[in-house]
Design brief:
Blueprint lengths: L14 H55 L30 E5 L16 E7 L2 E4 L2 E4 L2 E9 L19 E9 L24 E9 L8
Antiparallel strand pairs: 1-2, 2-3, 3-4, 5-6, 6-7
């Protein structure tokens, strides 16, 4: 008979030991899954915030460029007649006011005549939550668009008629955007579903002041 110095324990796990091992495994697995879910939600929210901030920067760049061109008249031998000859006027469809603007500039051909349509005639307005440029969608999920007009003294002036448009020297543009979806853990933003229990959308507001370089340089 062969002798052995070691005795092999052929006993298996008891039911109690098995249950304890399974419980510990479930706790660890639950912690890993919870961490993964939290990370996934945070990543998705950050993507929405990045998109929202992009939805602010793009239109602000467009509006800033167009406002700086307002009233441009490359043809110095031609008196550019555009309503009040200043490049910002109301019309039948888009009034220059707190929430919409119409910008005119002779930047395409410099012939002293404003052509209809972009780039010499540009309008901005908010249609629901879509910011439109010349009636075409520019960006979505915009909740507020506000224009404030300042004269040469830096005083905010309500602009409602063609009689005081030539006093404009600076236009302040304020744009508010929201995330596409609601955050169930956030309740201080914009509600889009109508149910507060669903949370609200995060929002950002970007405000810039743009000096209208051409207004006031022509009669």
């Amino acid at each position: 008979m062969q002798n052995s110095k070691f005795k092999i324990n052929e006993d298996g796990l008891t039911i109690i030991e098995l249950l304890i091992a399974m419980s510990i495994g479930l706790v660890v697995l639950g912690s890993v899954f919870s961490s993964f879910t939290t990370q996934k939600k945070a990543f998705a929210l950050q993507e929405q915030i990045t998109e929202m901030e992009q939805n602010l920067r793009v239109p602000i760049d467009f509006i800033t460029r167009d406002l700086r061109n307002a009233g441009a008249n490359p043809n110095i031998n031609t008196t550019l007649v555009i309503g009040t000859s200043v490049g910002l006027i109301p019309d039948a469809t888009t009034t220059i006011g707190a929430n919409s603007i119409r910008i005119l500039s002779d930047v395409e051909d410099g012939n002293g005549v404003i052509s209809s349509g972009s780039p010499e005639t540009v309008t901005y307005s908010l249609n629901g939550t879509t910011l439109e440029r010349n009636g075409n969608p520019l960006v979505d999920y915009i909740t507020a668009l506000t224009f404030t007009y300042f004269d040469s003294a830096g005083i905010a002036t309500p602009i409602t008629t063609t009689t005081n448009l030539s006093n404009i020297r600076v236009v302040q543009v304020s744009l508010t955007a929201r995330t596409e979806y609601e955050d169930p853990n956030y309740t201080a933003g914009v509600n889009i579903s109508g149910t507060a229990a669903d949370g609200t959308c995060k929002t950002r507001t970007l405000t810039v002041k743009v000096r209208t370089r051409n207004i006031g340089l022509q009669g």
